[in-house]
Amino acid sequence: MASVDQQSGAAEAAPSTNGSAGIAVENPATGQVIATVPNVGAGEVARMAAQARVVQPGWEALGFEERGRIMRRAQKWVIDNQDRVIETIVSETGKTYEDAQLAEISYAASAFGFWAKNAEKYLADEKVRSANVFMTGKKLLVRYRPLGVVGVIGPWNYPLTNSFGDCIPALMAGNAVILKPSEVTPLTSLLMAECLEECGLPNQVFQVATGDGETGAALIDEVDMVMFTGSTRTGRKVAVRAAERLIPYSLELGGKDPMIVLRDADLERAANTAVFYAMANSGQTCISVERVYVEAPVYDEFVQKVTQKVAELRQGRAGGPGSVEVGAMTFPPQLDIVERHVTDAVEKGAKVLMGGKRREGEGLFFEPTVLTDVTHEMEAMTEETFGPTLPIMKVASAEEAIQRANDSMYGLGGSVFTNDLAKGEAVARRVRSGAVCVNDALINYLALELPMGGAKQSGVGTRHGAGGIRKYCEPQTIVISRPFPKRDIHMYPYTEKNTERMRKVLKFIHARGKRD
Ligand code: NDP
Asked: Half-sphere exposure (CA, 13 Å, Cβ side) for 284?
């Protein structure tokens, strides 16, 4: 990992750090240190923000077409350099080759193209017609002006998709961006800085502030808007800090996504989907399947299918394409949480049908785990586990499944399986989550046209779609009075005659005719 420090843009001058020599980045599948990056301090973050403010107007002035050209080059760069990008992601996360290819390379390439193509459409001036007669003849416009400098703070589970991914629409909107990746996985962000530089992005329009939580907090103090992805606990702190400065923020937080399997479901499809979306990325996905509710008549068959499929999974260090299905976990404390949830469930009466423990030997591995006889008294059913576990609960009816699905402080995603599509949609509408898929799970994330965000404590705001780029702008209303009289009726001086006229106008507009 050559010249990591030079890539950050944060380290061009001797950076002020948070008091440590740097952050050691480990490969979680081997425990080996693979790089060291600066722990950028508040002073350096302020310097980066000042530089960003200098270059942002020029970047905005380039316009959508020129900005889009650079993003399209980056789209190609990601595909042309995918082996290198995947290697970097795999080395700092421990995930499998396919987890990096499917959910990161493919997302980033698609997002570069999508925002290059659609940013202008989403941010085009909107002509508005008003029903108010006082606006007759006037030109009414809403335009979207970039906020200036956007701070993006990201988690460790998808360093390309979730840390870097949000920088793309922020940049396309005309902002300068400073990205604070997780201290656990900073290398992919630094590689993307290199990508954008090679693709012609002007200097300092995109900068990476490697560091820990203090670096993230310092970033909030400098930017004009903060886009945060991470835990609900940290998200709350981010919101408080942003509120103190009265800057806008968008939060993509934790989840505990329920899957509902109704008695008429295609059980083979439901079981394949449950296993894949619970175990992919070792379960470290905000919208992974975290808990399953199955109607009693099909419960045994579903559990049997799931158990068999989980038994067939190969787990280990990714040795290249097709080598393993389930990789390492990325963050040591997360492994402790998974273990705690499983232990708590077992102590309260859950059965472990598969896995249930850490894997012995090198690296951070938790065995793919299937739990049954679970209840809502167990953390495995109420708290975000974020690991390769699949707790399955028998329910008496669709009604009970919906009630249990909604018995959560989270509301990020969810899924329903049934052959009756109308019923599936009706159930989906009653699950209080940002997105619910019928006979599928999680796949909504790929449609960048669709808003993606959390209900309840899973977030504030959305990414993707029009809202996913407008949030990086401040709407400005412009009203142009074209044919204009010397004086409008409501202006000074106030006279009895004018006031009486106004009374008649108001009555004519708002109180004509009879009302029930
Ligand atoms: P954390 O909340 O622990 O950290 C997220 C980021 O915030 C990291 O870069 C972290 O830095 C930084 N940070 C820590 N403290 C502060 C602070 N006081 N002020 C500003 N920034 C701070 O989340 P994880 O990294 O553990 O990520 C996992 C979580 O992310 C899960 O809950 C998951 O559900 C959620 N997530 C949500 C997604 C969504 O779209 N809704 C997508 C992906 C993940 P550092 O790591 O250096 O401490």
From this structure: 30
Residue 8's pLDDT is 39
**Cis amide prior to 159 (ω within 30 degrees):** no
Say if residues 86 and 105 touch (Cβ distance below 8 Å).
yes
Per the rule left: phi > 0, alpha: psi between -120 and 50, beta: everything else, 3 is left
Return the amino acid letter for 153. Answer: I
The pTM for the full model equals 0.94
**HEC profile for 411-446?**
ECCCEEECCCHHHHHHHHHHCCCCCCEECCCCHHHH
Looking at residue 16, its pLDDT comes to 57
Amino acid occupying residue 213: G
- Ligand 1 center from residue 181 Cα (angstroms): 9
Rounded to 5 degrees, φ, ψ at 392 are -120, 130
Q: Cα angle vertex 91, ends 177, 231, to 5°?
A: 55
Helix ranges, 285-397 (H): 296-311, 332-347, 379-382
The tokens of 324 are what?
């393993």
- Which residues of the chain are modeled with pLDDT < 50? 1-14
Strand, coil or helix: 46: helix
CA atoms within 13 A on the CB side of 417: 27
N residues, the chain: 516
Q: Which residue in 419, 346, 324, 296 sits closest to 94, CA to CA? A: 324
CA distance 78 to 301: 43
State pLDDT tens for residues 238-277.
999 999 999 999 999 999 999 999 999 999 999 999 999 9
| Residues lining ligand 1, Cβ inside 6 A | 153-157, 162, 180, 182-184, 212-213, 216-217, 229-231, 234, 237-238, 252-255, 286, 384, 386, 412, 454, 459
Q: What is the Cα 352 distance to its own chain's centre?
A: 32
DSSP for 367-386, written as a single string: --EEEES--TTSHHHHS---
